Every structure is written in C-alpha cells, then in structure tokens.
C-alpha cells in the first residue's frame, strides 16, 4: 500500500483510518509551516493525542474560530469533511479573498478527530460506536456520550444516566478527557468568537439552547445567520437544511457542546448535522464525502465571514 | 470484531403526536437493544432505528400492532459495512 507523501496525493474521496488522518495533519503542517501548526490539547482516555490544527498568519491570541468534527465517532463523514476543510483552508489562503481577509485578522482551529478512541474502535471493533471509550465504574457498559458531558444543564432532561445508553452523560460534567481538553483550551485561549461542532446526519444547522426553552439573547442574529448559511449551502447541490435552536428543532438535549460554548460568551455557537441521502444514515458512501464537505464549506464560510465582519 | 448480520435500519413515520409518543416509548425498551440513529423529533421527521436481528420480529410486530408505518431503510447492515470495507481496501490498493 502506497502511503500518500503529501496532502496533494491524499485521497479525500475515501474514508481514512486514524493513523492516516494523523499523518495527513503532520503533512499539512510540514507543507505550510507559516500557516499551519499542530497543537496537542490533551490525550484521550486511551492515550491518543487530541490534535488541533491551528491556522494562523501571526499575531498573539487573535480572535479565533473553532471547528470540530467527529465527536460522535461513527459519523465518519464528519472526520472526512474535517480533513477536507483543513486542506481547503490551507489551499485557499491567499487565493480566496474572503478567507484571506479572515485569516489576516483571525485564527482558525480545527479538531478533526475529536473522539479518537471511539474512531479507532469504529475501524477495528464496532463500526456503530458513538461514545468515548472510558469504562464506567460499576457497569459493564463503556463510554460516555461526549455531547452530553458538558457543563450546560448537565444531568437534566435529554441525556441518560444509564451507562448503557447511547446518550449517557457521564458521572459528572467534563468527566471525559476529550471534552475537558477542549474546555481547558477554550478557557485558556479566551478569545474564541465562533465555535462550530459538526455531526451527521439529518441536515440541520442548530444554535443554542438544547437544555432549555429559554431563547438565547442573540437568537434573532443567530437565526438570520443560520438562514444565510443554509441558503449558501443549498446553492451547490440543493441540499435542504432545517435550522433553529436545538430544543425547538430536534429535542431537549442537556450537557451539549454549544450550549456550554455559548454560555462561555462565544456568541456564534453552532452545530451541524450533515447531509442524509435518505438511504444510508451515517454510513454514507465515500462518494458522498466531497460533495458533503463542499456544500458544508459554503455554510462554514458564511458563519466565519459574519463572525469576522461583526466583531464583539 | 462485532458484526451486524441481519441488523436492519427501520425508518418509522408517525402520523400524529400520539404516534410520536409511542415511538418515543420504544427508546425505553432496553431489552430490544435498539440504536436510535435519528431520534424522535416531530411528525414531519422520520425516526431511524437500528434493530438487531434477534429483535426484528418483536419490533416489527410491535410497530404493526400500533399501526405505525415503517420501511426498511437498510436491509442488512453488515452487507453495507462489508461494501464499505471493500471500498476502503480497494481505494488503498
């Protein structure tokens, strides 16, 4: 098997193992030393590095945008899209005027494999695995839903207290190192202005809250921006998204990622559910990766551009 | 390695809020080992659930007894996973 030697020969139209994605990250850094660096923000329960790619043209602690993919490990199209986004950012800087303007003032952070233990497990043991891989004391069931483990309405309705459930919240907020590492990083950075967490599937763009029906104070702006983002997304292949707050659009979910980030003061907090062909769920065929990433990129650009043009 | 021979993914559609609540109740039926890929949201949005082979008959009977409409979205999950694996290996070659 010939390993790709650079990111140009990396095949974005197929799914990759975790080691291939780690190699991709290192290649991207090596090829773009003045733009891309790799930060290890922590370790997973099983000791895998939690890598974040930082795209920066300089400055200190610039206002920043966060993108993460793959917190639910079995949603492979998200890690694959994250890989594509990383290459896109590196390629478009200096070519695309909107992205260049953003990167001249802001940094972008991309965590491609947010739940590496789970991702490894999906490749090697159980393709259906969604949670982390930390054992739960007193239970034979393993793992926590890392999208119910955040300190935002933690333990409320819309998450399970049963370790065998797919939505098990964990023993306490931020019990999972995969979550705690992001929490610590976001807090220590202190200057994130947008936070986008990407899931699949069901074609939705959501903003807080999930744990309460109380609208966020920026609801009108987040709603309008979501509308713009999904309109841009649909312009490519006609993929139709729904949008709104989590609790009004899907269901009540406590301990969710973007509820926490919003409560930290990150106004532009969104979560995606990527495309659904209606036949495959999250077992999306590899030929769907690039179209999914391409259309999602348009929505991401809408959010990033708005964040750039509306400093707060 | 865990395999999924005979597991099906069913797409269930509710006609009204009452039927939606009946589907929601199924989330609590732990013994069936259902894996909700797309949970209960609203009447307009179907629910997708992976059903292990050993629960298929019970689940289908249950759905039919409640007059809940469903279709088989994925006939045999392992067949799809095998195709996915082959495709990855082929691309790697």
Describe this structure in words.
The complex is a heterodimer of chains A (312) and B (93). Chain A is of the alpha/beta class and 312 residues long. Helix content of chain A is 36%, strand content 16%. Chain A is built from nine helices and eight strands. Chain A has helices spanning 18-31, 76-92, 97-105, 116-124, 177-189, 219-237, 246-249, 257-263, 289-309, and strands spanning 36-43, 49-55, 64-69, 107-111, 192-200, 204-207, 242-245, 268-274. In chain A, strand 1 and strand 2 (49-55) form a beta hairpin. The radius of gyration of chain A is 18 Å and the shape is globular. The two termini of chain B are 23 Å apart. In chain B, strand 2 and strand 3 (47-51) form a beta hairpin. Chain B is built from three helices and four strands; from the N terminus they run E-H-E-E-H-E-H. Helices cover 39% and strands 23% of the residues of chain B. Chain B has 93 residues and is of the alpha+beta class. The interface between A and B is medium-sized, with 26 and 26 residues.
Could you outline the blueprint of secondary structure elements for this entry?
The complex is a heterodimer of chains A (312) and B (93).
Chain A: H1 18-31, E1 36-43, E2 49-55, E3 64-69, H2 76-92, H3 97-105, E4 107-111, H4 116-124, H5 177-189, E5 192-200, E6 204-207, H6 219-237, E7 242-245, H7 246-249, H8 257-263, E8 268-274, H9 289-309
Parallel strand pairs in A: 3-4, 3-5, 5-8, 6-7
Antiparallel strand pairs in A: 1-2, 2-4, 6-8
Helix pairs in contact in A: 1-2, 2-9, 3-9, 6-9
Chain B: E1 8-13, H1 17-26, E2 35-38, E3 47-51, H2 56-65, E4 69-74, H3 77-92
Antiparallel strand pairs in B: 1-3, 1-4, 2-3
β-strand amount of chain A: 15-25%
H/E series of chain B: EHEEHEH
Cα gyration radius of chain A (Å):
18 Å
General shape of chain A? globular
Mean pLDDT of chain B: 94
The largest contact between protein chains, plus residue counts on each side, is: A-B, 26 and 26 residues
Based on Cα principal axes, name the global outline of chain B: elongated
The strands making up the biggest β-sheet of chain B line up spatially as: 2-3-1-4
Q: Could you tell me the number of beta strands of chain B? A: 4
Structural class of chain B: alpha+beta
First and last CA, distance of chain A: 50 Å
**Average predicted confidence as pLDDT of chain A:** 97
Describe the largest sheet of chain B: 4 strands, antiparallel
Give the class of chain A from helix and strand content and strand pairing.
alpha/beta
Instruction: Give the proportion of residues in helices of chain B.
Output: 25-40%
Q: Give the termini separation of chain B.
A: 23 Å
**How many helices of chain A does DSSP assign?**
9
């Amino acid at each position: 098997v010939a390993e790709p030697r650079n990111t140009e020969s990396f095949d974005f139209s197929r799914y990759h193992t975790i080691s291939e994605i780690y190699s991709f990250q290192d290649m991207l850094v090596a090829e773009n030393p003045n733009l891309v660096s790799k930060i290890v923000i922590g370790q997973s329960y099983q000791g895998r590095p939690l890598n974040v790619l930082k795209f920066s043209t300089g400055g200190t602690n610039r206002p920043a945008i966060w993108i993460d993919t793959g917190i639910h490990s079995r949603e492979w199209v998200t890690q694959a899209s994250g890989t594509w986004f990383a290459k896109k950012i590196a390629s478009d800087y200096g070519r695309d005027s909107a992205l260049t303007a953003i990167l001249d003032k802001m940094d972008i952070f991309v965590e491609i494999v947010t739940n590496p233990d789970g991702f490894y497990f999906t490749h090697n043991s159980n393709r259906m695995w969604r949670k982390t891989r930390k054992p739960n004391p007193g239970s034979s069931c393993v793992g926590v839903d890392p999208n119910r483990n955040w300190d935002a309405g933690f333990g409320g309705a819309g998450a399970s207290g049963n370790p065998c459930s797919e939505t098990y919240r964990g023993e306490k907020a931020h019990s999972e190192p995969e979550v705690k590492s992001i929490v610590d990083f976001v807090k220590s950075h202190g200057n994130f202005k947008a936070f986008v967490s990407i899931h699949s599937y069901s074609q939705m763009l959501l903003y807080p809250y999930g744990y309460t029906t109380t609208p966020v104070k920026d609801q009108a702006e987040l709603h309008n921006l979501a509308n713009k983002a999904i309109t841009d997304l649909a312009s490519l292949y006609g993929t139709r998204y729904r949008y709104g707050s989590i609790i009004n659009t899907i269901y009540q979910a406590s301990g969710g990622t973007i509820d926490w980030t919003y409560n930290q003061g990150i106004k532009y907090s969104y979560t995606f559910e990527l495309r659904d062909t209606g036949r495959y769920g999250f077992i999306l065929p590899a030929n769907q990766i690039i179209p999914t990433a391409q259309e999602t990129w348009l929505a991401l650009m809408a959010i990033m551009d708005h964040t750039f043009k509306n400093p707060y | 390695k865990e395999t999924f021979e005979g597991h099906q993914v069913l797409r269930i559609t509710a006609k009204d809020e009452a039927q939606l609540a009946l589907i929601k109740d199924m989330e609590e039926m732990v013994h069936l080992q259902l894996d909700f890929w797309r949970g209960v949201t609203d009447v307009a949005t179907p629910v997708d659930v992976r059903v292990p082979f050993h629960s298929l008959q019970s689940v289908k009977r249950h759905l039919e007894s409640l007059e809940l409409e469903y279709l088989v979205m994925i006939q045999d999950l392992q067949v799809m996973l095998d195709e996915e694996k082959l495709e990855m290996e082929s691309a790697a070659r």
